[in-house]
Design goal:
The protein is an alpha+beta fold and 131 residues long. The chain is 37% helix and 14% strand. It has two domains: 42 residues; 57 residues, no CATH class. The protein is built from four helices and four strands; from the N terminus they run ββαβααβα. The protein is elongated and about 70 Å long.
């Protein structure tokens, strides 16, 4: 017997048992499961990461103060970079979608910014981490 298992988006686990002699059934079920998984991933919303001002300036190859000048422009100005205000200027964040929109509006020659990989954690490792 062959057992095929999958978990749906709602968390329901489905298991099907088939005799070994029916290879075509197993292959068609695997294809159907893979197609459904692809469909669900394509339909899921894409993440929109938020970056700090220094990190955004680094991604756009600008000085952080130049970037802040773009953030201070009037709301209706074409070159204004929209951002999410924090409790202080250190907490201001710029969404990746806003960076792409700013690049498109200003027709920059730079290629569109790709999401940056996560940075390694700094500091000492936790003494509670499993080894």
């Amino acid at each position: 017997m062959v057992e095929l298992s999958t978990t749906t988006a709602e968390g329901l686990e489905v298991t099907v048992r088939l005799p070994d002699t029916h290879e075509w059934v197993r292959e068609s079920l695997e294809r159907a499961c893979a197609a459904e998984a692809r469909r669900q991933l394509d339909a899921a919303p894409a993440p929109d990461p938020a970056y700090s001002v220094p990190r955004t300036a680094e991604l756009l190859d600008l000085h952080p103060e130049t970037l802040r000048d773009y953030m201070r422009l009037p709301e209706t100005h074409q070159r204004r970079l929209h951002y999410l205000p924090g409790e202080s200027s250190r907490g201001d964040r710029v969404l990746l979608s806003q960076i792409h929109d700013w690049q498109r509006r200003n027709r920059t020659d730079a290629p569109p910014v790709a999401p940056a990989p996560p940075r390694p954690k700094r500091g000492r490792p936790s003494r509670f981490a499993q080894q």
